[in-house]
Amino acid sequence: MLKKLLFWATTLGLTTAAGPSFAEDTLSAGDTSWMIVATVLVIMMSIPGLALFYGGLVRTKNMLSVLMQVFAIVALMSILWAIAGYSLAFTEGPFNSIIGGFDKLFLAGITPDTLSGTIPEYVFVTFQLTFACITPALIIGAFAERIKFSAVLWFSALWLFVSYIPICHMVWGGGYLGSKGALDFAGGTVVHINAAIAGLVICLVLGKRLGYGKEAMPPHNLPFTMVGAALLWVGWFGFNVGSELAADGTAGLVLLTTQLCAAASVLGWLFIEWITRGKPTMLGGASGAVAGLVAITPACAFVGPMGAIVLGLITGVVCFFACTKIKSAFGYDDSLDVFGVHGIGGIIGAIGAGILCAPEFGGVGYGEGVTMGSQVAIQVEGVVITILWSGIASFILIKIIDAVIGIRPTEDAEREGLDATSHGEAAYHN
Predict the structure, then answer these.
(1) Which end of the chain is less crowded, N or C, counting CB atoms within 10 A of the terminal residue's CB?
(2) How many alpha carbons lie under 13 Å from residue 217 in its C-beta half-sphere?
(3) Cα–Cα–Cα angle for 94, 95, 99, nearest 5°?
């Protein structure tokens, strides 16, 4: 597919008013090799990266349930993406502003010789599949330790088609937001805000965990969380750099901005935690890294290295307060701070991309006729549309699922732990 490449060219003013003129697609072995590596890196982000990151944060009795949810979601989303997801996201349809069509249902018409730009279309399909896998997997952190496994599977499957795919198409597949010039290089709106709002809605519908606010619920294994965060950090280079779909100079810029923003966010989080709580923590460092990686995701190809550092420092500080002060003030039980990290981080990154893209801040600049004000306006519009779309869709879906099969385990099952009651297993044996 050339749609994504053409979109960025148009957005950054690289095409003429008469329309783009491109030579016939030619396979690039270098681009293909890199994209295969990038795809594998993003798979590693989910399993084992995200699974270990989340698994270490929950209590011992629920660790396997979280690992199982991530594992099963990756498997389920892979199949659904191949059957219909890819076609609906990346082809044209009668309602093309919102969603694609059925031309490539069951991957019809794609062969080993079919190209998407300079890479085989099968590689592009698989790369985009990894995004469809990790996005619903991110959601589970918001309601960890208190949801039925069956409800997770049903929600993830339906949410893929009702929320992820429409937002993906609107931004990357030739839909409304992409046509308006919204900047989201690797998924600030498509992945992180989309998932965070869904998670927030479900945690509010489910209610708090038994004993929340009355008994301690510390992470059971912070070394697992650190390892998971490290795997996410490494894998994120596939996530962000791979979104260029080529091994070129822009990929080099994305490589650097991703690293710098993550690093700055770690330092920002640790610094503010040190000041306010007296000690910097390993959990804080891991959370800061993920927050910075989230924030740079939409902006990584548009901001300069110094802009990435500024973005990271701001994100680390703001997300710290979102996960502590704001969460405490409103009293919601977002188990693993999905909204505070992915939602707030994604919003900062999406809007920040429109500001730090400016040449005076070291960014790549705007397209012809585009100003900072107009770019920020479309970035805000993209954020608002994603929040409303994901929020409404997620609320309707979870209410339907609750009415049909129920979404919360019994109190006895929740107290005993989901590892035993849902899966008949235990993570540890004495």
Answers:
(1) C
(2) 21
(3) 115
Q: What is the DSSP letter of 25?
A: P
Examine the pLDDT at 4 and tell me if it is beyond 60.
Answer: no
Range of the domain at 192: 32-423
Cα–Cα distance for residue pair 284/143, rounded to 1 Å: 20
Beta bridge partners of 120: 115
Beta bridge partners of 212: none
Q: What is the pLDDT of residues 30-55, one digit of tens each?
A: 999 999 999 999 999 999 999 999 99
Is 3 a member of any domain?
Answer: no
**For residues 173 and 100, is the Cβ–Cβ distance under 8 A?**
yes
319 within a domain of the structure (yes/no): yes
pLDDT score of 25: 82
Task: With respect to residue 80, please indicate whether it lies within any of the assigned structural domains.
Answer: yes
Rg (CA), the chain: 21
Answer yes or no: are the C-beta atoms of 248 and 226 closer than 8 Å: no
The total number of structural domains in the chain stands at: 1
For helices 344-356 and 282-296, the axis angle rounded to 10 degrees is 50
Amino acid symbol at 201: V
d(CA 13, CA 18) in angstroms, rounded, equals 12
Q: Tokens for 257?
A: 């901005």
What is the CA angle 376-324-379, rounded to 5? Answer: 10
Query: How confident is the prediction for the chain on average, in pLDDT?
Result: 94
Tokens of 345: 């981080």
Q: What is the DSSP letter of 172?
A: H
Structure tokens that stand for 82 in this block: 């191949």
The pTM of the full predicted model, rounded to 2 decimals, is: 0.94
What confidence tens digit (pLDDT) does each residue in 331-365 have? 999 999 999 999 999 999 999 999 999 999 999 99
**Coil/strand/helix, residue 120:** strand
Q: Which CATH number characterizes residue 55's domain? A: 1.10.3430.10
